[in-house]
Amino acid sequence: MATIHPGGYSAEVEGDFVVFLIGMRLNRPWKVHRWLPVYTAMPRMLRQLQRDPERGLLGAGVGLLFGGPAVVQYWRSFEHLERFARDPASLHLPAWRWFNRAMKGSVDVGIWHETYLVPAGRYEAIYGNMPRVGLAAAAGHVPVGRRGYSAAERVGR
């Protein structure tokens, strides 16, 4: 069971970082043979990244969003994320090429991603009576007062 941290905490990250959201939508969930390969590709990619911290993934969490499974990823930099996406030795590029071939002309499975470049100190996160999750689990976890007692203080306003 995860350790609960009583009281208020905030995430703390040194320098700039990137938040990358990626997911899929099961437009035709009964077509398991179409979406299962897409669904199983992401855990393999995350394991590859977690085994090699130099690739720049700080942490990730999985959940449901926009009608399907999604992953919130925290990256050290956009360059790290892009390098992984384009690296022929990574699991991403072959999976991406397979998806484009297999899904050409099909709407059985939808995919999406959003990328946010976050300047140093320009983020806000608060966790009350929670285990370390999200950005706090990926980067750092400090008592809320250390970064400010209001959202405005925590985003540097």
Describe the structure using short key phrases.
32% strand; 3-stranded antiparallel sheet; 157 residues; Alpha-Beta Plaits; alpha+beta; single chain
Explain what this protein looks like in three dimensions:
A hairpin with a 2-residue loop joins strand 3 and strand 4. Helix 1 runs antiparallel to helix 3. The mean pLDDT is 93. By secondary structure, this protein is of the alpha+beta class. The longest helix has 20 residues, at 32-51. It folds into 2 domains: 5-12 and 119-154, no CATH class; 17-118, Alpha-Beta Plaits, CATH 3.30.70.100. The protein has helices at residues 32-51, 78-86, 92-102, 134-138, 144-147, 151-154, and strands at 5-11, 17-26, 57-65, 68-75, 109-118, 127-130, 141-143. The chain is built from 6 helices and 7 strands. The strands form 2 sheets. It has a 4-stranded antiparallel β-sheet. A 3-stranded antiparallel β-sheet has the order 6-1-7.
CATH architecture of the largest domain: 2-Layer Sandwich
Strand elements, count: 7
Strands of the biggest beta sheet: in what spatial order?
A: 3-4-2-5
How large is the share of residues in beta strands?
Answer: 25-35%
Looking at CATH, which topology of the largest domain would you report? Answer: Alpha-Beta Plaits
Shape: elongated
CATH class of the largest domain: Alpha Beta
Q: What is the number of domains?
A: 2
- Rg over CA atoms, rounded to whole Å, is 18 Å
* SSE string: EEHEEHHEEHEHH
Structural class: alpha+beta
Mind summarizing the main beta sheet? Answer: 4 strands, antiparallel
Poorly predicted regions are: none
Mean pLDDT: 93
How far apart the termini lie comes to 37 Å
Task: Output the number of helix runs.
Answer: 6
Q: What proportion of the residues is helical, as a percent range?
A: 25-40%
